[in-house]
Design goal:
By secondary structure, the chain is an alpha/beta fold. It has seven helices and ten strands. Strand 7, helix 5 and strand 8 form a beta-alpha-beta unit. It is globular, with a radius of gyration of 22 Å.
Length: 247
């Protein structure tokens, strides 16, 4: 396995309930995982714990057998090799597309930065947008820049928080397909949270449904199709002869 999450628990201060309770799963390299649930189900808490923005009360996370956190270890966010795409994309407005993407490549030499920038711009199909600023881009293009910036340092894992919430319904359908292709081409292991079942079924290799901080069900989109409520059949009344009116 590439990533192992075991028995992770977390409670926010001054609350009487667990925001996350005994969350466990393993993830293979390049897999796209969706965490699906209503508001308050714990899905955003998972991202915060994996990113290092919160400290779990118990449990462990290992990536390629390297311990990220357990009862003895807690790596700081910048040392985890985990990228994050925020709900509002969090692009720097005063920086061009190229500057935004290069921001996380501070450890590379100039020639290496230029090469990596070219690679990720091609990956997200924004080769001609390097000199543009975020306000000059559409919502879908801004999302691609945010993804490119997260992918550029070659992270072990990318976390995406409600990646389609800022896009209109028409654009969502196209962007879902594009995002999956980008992640698969880059062979990037990713976890995205959403409350939209259509997003989860279109993008994910596996879906984890959360309820009250616990895993309710987990499986591939095909496996979970059978768990969807089916519409009630339409009942057509049968006319009796006495109900017919002669003309």
């Amino acid at each position: 396995m590439f990533i192992s999450i075991q028995n992770v628990c977390f409670s926010y201060p001054n609350t009487d309930y667990a925001a996350l309770d005994q969350f466990s799963m393993t993830i293979e390299k390049g897999e796209v995982i969706s965490i699906l649930g209503r508001s308050g189900s714990g899905k955003s808490t998972i991202l915060r714990l994996l990113a290092g923005l919160e400290k779990p009360t118990q449990g462990s996370l290992t990536i390629q057998e390297k311990v990220i956190f357990d009862n003895k270890t807690f790596l700081q966010p910048e040392k985890r090799g985990i990228g994050m795409v925020f709900q509002d994309y969090a692009l720097f407005p005063h920086m061009t597309v190229g500057e935004n993407i290069r921001f996380g490549l501070f450890q590379l030499k100039k020639a290496q930065k230029k090469k990596r920038l070219k690679e990720v711009l091609e990956l997200v199909e924004l080769q001609d947008y390097e000199k543009r600023y975020p306000h000059q881009l559409s919502g879908g293009q801004q999302q691609r820049v945010a993804i490119a910036r997260a992918i550029a340092p070659n992270p072990h894992l990318i976390l995406l928080d409600e990646p389609f919430s800022n896009l209109d319904a028409e654009l969502q359908v196209k962007i879902r397909k594009d995002l999956r292709e980008i992640l698969k081409k880059a062979n990037i292991t990713s976890i995205f949270v959403t409350h939209d079942e259509d997003d989860a079924h279109a993008l994910a290799d596996r879906i984890v449904k959360l309820k009250d901080g616990c895993i309710d069900v987990i499986g591939s989109p095909c496996d979970l199709l059978g768990t969807q409520p089916q519409p009630a059949p339409t009942v057509i009344p049968v006319m009796e002869p006495k109900d017919l009116v002669s003309v």
